[in-house]
Design brief:
Structural class: alpha/beta
Distance between the termini: 73 Å
Strand content: 5-15%
CATH class of the largest domain: Alpha Beta
Oligomer: single chain
CATH superfamily of the largest domain: P-loop containing nucleotide triphosphate hydrolases
CATH topology of the largest domain: Rossmann fold
Order of helices and strands: EHEHEHEHHHEHEEHHEHEHEHH
Number of helices: 13
Radius of gyration: 25 Å
Largest sheet: 6 strands, mixed
CATH architecture of the largest domain: 3-Layer(aba) Sandwich
Shape: globular
């Protein structure tokens, strides 16, 4: 990991632990962790030459198969590191996609994952091939160069085919969203970091039995269920989990999930209470940032602090003081998907729907403007 903020003595440890957890989930055995502090990443290797040399020795000594970087690697950095270290080099984006692949069950998820892979690796493949066949021009289109262009064109065609397929799915999803709007059925989307308990709460509220696992990203494609809250028909949607410091390109590759969040009447942001306070705060702030980047307004967000069953009365009271400050400006409540304790959440949803459906009175400035225009017209 490259740490670019020399004054960060805590946050990078959280990020590194998160990376280790993801690596273990993907089936890797983590044998060591290395951090370098530099204010600016190096163009070719991300890290400095001395650290590359140290890492190379470690790879050889420990017989390492993969080196996983927390930082996003450019195609150039990935290629040069792979050549220098003589092993597979991946970043957190690729690691996340590996976990997605292990969890993918439906065709839509697999299609989105493949598209994300192609977007990431096509530039790398082009750079790798350009270096490999550099200088190999004994005559026009040597065999190596010909093979390169043939493979590159095949990859481009595949990427285009998948992109067009996803665009069709996007239009179909937009049509479904529009149909729900016409029916007047509000949509409630559950969002949050992976393992926050979204699917467990979805099952509890909707009476479903969708797969739940401690492994990250059990849910990749959105799940829908028509339910009722105080005789009000409501669509509940369970979506893919977030990760801390989520790569924007990864978000862009999962447009179908973004559409569900962006079009929701209410987004229930689940935050798990089984983490230390600093991680609870980090995950909450990161989740809010992701939702804002997607286009979800704060007024449509309700915070559900899940796994409240882990708290006794004294702990809950003490934690409430911390959360009241942290969640200032948001409506929030404690929930427990495990114990099916979510009545407070349903009350907040009902209240929020009433607020959102309430006609808005025009601003005072607009009224004054209209009055002046009317007055001028009558006098003329």
């Amino acid at each position: 990991m490259l740490k670019t903020n020399p004054h960060d003595h805590t946050l990078f440890k959280i990020y590194l632990n998160e990376l280790e957890r993801l690596a273990v989930s993907a089936g890797f055995e983590v044998v060591d962790k290395i951090v370098q502090t530099r204010t600016k990443p190096k163009t070719n290797f991300l890290i400095g030459r001395g650290k590359v040399k140290e890492l190379k020795e470690l790879v050889k000594t420990l017989n390492v198969d993969y080196v996983i970087f927390y930082n996003s690697l450019s195609s150039r950095q990935k290629l040069f590191l792979s050549i220098e270290l003589k092993c597979e080099v991946i970043d957190r984006y690729e690691l996340t996609l590996m976990i997605f692949e292990n969890s993918a069950q439906d065709n839509i998820s697999k299609l989105q994952i493949e598209y994300a892979w192609l977007r990431k690796l096509t530039p790398f493949f082009k750079l790798e091939a350009s270096i490999k066949y550099k200088g190999e021009h004994p005559f026009f289109r040597s065999m190596g160069e010909y093979a390169f262009y043939k493979k590159l064109n095949m990859v481009k065609r595949k990427e285009k085919t998948i992109r067009l397929s996803l665009e069709k799915l996007v239009w179909e999803r937009l049509r479904q969203i529009d149909e729900r709007k016409k029916l007047g059925i509000p949509t409630i989307v559950l969002a949050g970091m992976y393992n926050a308990g979204k699917t467990a709460l979805f099952n509890a509220i909707c009476g479903c039995n969708k797969p739940v696992s401690d492994s990250p990203f059990t849910t990749l494609s959105s799940k829908y269920q028509l339910s009722e809250i105080e005789s009000q028909k409501t669509f509940f949607v369970d979506t893919i989990g977030f990760v801390v410091d989520l790569d924007p390109m990864l978000i862009e590759s999962f447009k179908l999930n973004i559409l569900d969040l962006r079009s929701a009447d209410i987004v229930i942001l689940l935050v798990a209470l089984d983490d230390p306070l600093e991680i609870i705060e980090l995950k909450f702030k990161e989740s809010i940032k992701i939702l804002k980047n997607i286009g979800v307004e704060e007024k449509r967000i309700i915070i559900a602090m899940n796994k409240a069953d882990l708290l006794n009365g004294e702990k809950r009271a003490a934690l409430s003081l911390f959360l009241t400050s942290l969640l200032s400006g948001f409506e929030w409540c404690f929930v427990s998907a495990k114990e099916k304790e979510y009545s407070s959440l349903l009350s907040l949803i009902t209240k929020k729907l009433q607020e959102l459906n309430r006609p808005q009175s025009p601003p005072q400035t607009a009224s004054m403007f209209i009055s002046r225009r009317t007055f001028q017209s009558s006098s003329s």
